[in-house]
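dude i think i finally got it to work??
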Amino acid sequence: MARRKKIYEGKAKIMYEGPEPGTLVQYFKDDATAFNAEKKATIEGKGVLNNRLSEFFMSGLTQVGIPNHFIKRLNMREQLIRSVEIIPLEVIVRNFAAGSISKRLGMAEGTPLPRPIVEFCYKDDALGDPLVSEEHIIAFGWANQQDLDDMIALALRVNDFMSGVMLAVGIKLVDFKIEIGRIWENDFHRLIVADEISPDSCRLWDIETGRKLDKDVFRRDLGSLADAYTEVARRLGVLPSNVTHAPKPTLIN
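look at this
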């Protein structure tokens, strides 16, 4: 396998330099983390499933005209993506109450929200990715007002697409988070969806039974995370035929 330089390693993925300028290779690990990595485990085949699922969702976004960083899947664990300038925010869209909003507002999990709610969190593991307002974002220069308007519009378009896709296979899209990056063209930039879309970054509940099919299975010790992710991939028709480990690329310093 070709030697590649590692650019960045996060909790669930590794970024390597790409074959062409302006590209990266995104490698999906089997690591599972929760509570800002206080809880950790290795889940056999998780990276393979998330690679396929993120490919499926990003390709779908492209088909409906929502710009994103995905170029193509390279193998079982890697995909070629565009290099972007990530805005240091998590963009969260909530359709039903769950997780932190239930705790903050005293709402029962599963309560339908009056409309999709978009929230922002500042990306900083040491701080616990705190919730921030639009005023904070503009004041600290993380994004300007036009960027914010575009981010909200992008997030709601992703929500429309994802909600429909999941509903068609009997899954409720409770909430999800995405990251958004800037692509520069001379002195101008446009915003595109980046990072990944997978059960790691969504809350997915079976419509009939309420069974959780996302990372809450790991967070709350509700059973096998691999089984939950496999079920999502099976329903969407993207289940890999051989979910196994693949060797990591040889690194250079």
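The chain has two domains: 4-84+225-241, 85-206.
im so relieved honestly
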